[in-house]
Design brief:
Blueprint (H helix, E strand, L loop, with lengths): L1 H16 L13 H42 L13 H25 L3 H27 L8 E5 L5 E4 L1 H23 L7 H26 L13 H7 L9 H23 L13
Antiparallel strand pairs: 1-2
Helix pairs in contact: 1-2, 2-4, 2-5, 3-4, 4-5, 5-8, 6-8
Amino acid sequence: MFGGLLIIDYLIPKVIKNIQIPFLKMNFESNFMNKNHIMIKQTILKIFWITFFSIAMGLLESSVVIYLRELYYPEGFVFPLKMMSSSIALTELLREAATLIMLVSIGVLAGRTKTEKFGYFIYSFAIWDIFYYIFLKVLIQWPETWLTWDVLFLLPTTWVGPVIAPVLLSAAMIGLSLAIFYFTDRDNQTIITGKEWALLVFGSLIVILSFTWEYSKYMLQEFPVRELFVINENTLSYAIQFIPTHYPWILFFVGFITILTGIGIFALRNSKTKPIVSTNAKSR
């Protein structure tokens, strides 16, 4: 295994080194264009390894879920949820927090600027999420359809929704991240403006609301708002009776279209800028 990784680590840079990108019309006698060409090859290599890492994380995540389902849902996963002990529920929360820390760390280590760090974070998150479902489908033939309900996340409260919803979001995240990588290689002063951030954040909050809407509405029938974020026997015993029936698609698509609008404005604005590479640019 270690030898195989060494071979890959040797061969991939060699392959990347020989990649020619004629549509950029690079002049290799120009110092500027040489730097730009090197940066693009480095970005391609970085994307390869982060994709590799994120796919492995997807397999790891799906493996944990398969173990849990074998223990709690040997007949197959369906709502309502089975009762878990408080310690297992807390462990799941900590595992998800640890996953986020790992994905954020990828962005911090790989990115050259703040914008690119964000790009690598959402790229690794999206690849991880998509391959999580791919591996579940391959290993246990789940989900049955794109509209199968799933528990999507547990922080800060429970998120539920059809599988297709997070997959669509992941596709949009990959699109934004690739745009960030491309434009940062052209100009390392590339940033996401306040207007674009507002659209991305507002759209994301609406989408998160669509994921938590059904569950929160159910829990608020019995508990005050603060209890939505507390793990104890009372909340767990009530929460496991929850059966999702209606997903607020209108809410989701309002948020999703808002996110796509922010991505589109970012891409359109940066496509009009001339390529500039400044070796002394500050992280932005």
